[in-house]
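Record type: monomer structure entry
Structure origin: computed from sequence
Chain ID: A
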Amino acid sequence: MPITNPTILAIRSRFAQSGAEALSDHELVALLIGPGGGRRSAAEPLGLAERALGQAGGLWGLARAEISQIARLDGVGEARACRLKAAVEIGRRLAVPDPPRGRPIESAGDVAEWYRCRLQGFERECIHALLLDSKHRPLRQLRVSEGSWTSCHVDPKVVFAACLRDGAPAVILVHNHPSGDPTPSRDDLELTERMVRAGKLVGVTVVDHLVVGRCGYTSMADSGLI
């Protein structure tokens, strides 16, 4: 069904003529979610966007929230929540390119920056694995597991089965701390030791384990912990 709401049409026209930078946060969100389902929100798409942003805590709050949380915002619902999260994910992927496959990893800082930007909006700890070839060039990225605010369980078989399947003799593990503090916990240190031991058994080298947060990163290898 074509959009006939005058507010949405006006915002869309200004967007087309002047570009995205001419629109406020509220107007951009109004374009994404469109008119609401009820009579009041259908008449006030910009008001719906303003309420959603206010309840979520702004654009950053929307980026960090899960779909189910956004869907519960006044007048949003699941379909609009999915559109919002899709837009956030597209922006994230455009802003954070994948590690280049053609050249070897040169520093922990390069890997940390890729993943810090990719994971900084996550409310839960996520562990990723960057599979490497014999010259430490990236082969593939793998999302291993997702846990809670403070911890994440990892099954070594998942990581090393992927390495063996893809012919990757080396791997770098990366996970985020939603608190923003990249200081490794005791669980992080124990996980690193366990993964290094398991890797030796199957002939895969754990090159590094990085903990990333808004405040920086910690490299287990650079810290002498591998």
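Annotation 1: Residues 77-95 form the longest helix (19 residues).
Annotation 2: Residues 38-43 have pLDDT under 50 and may be disordered.
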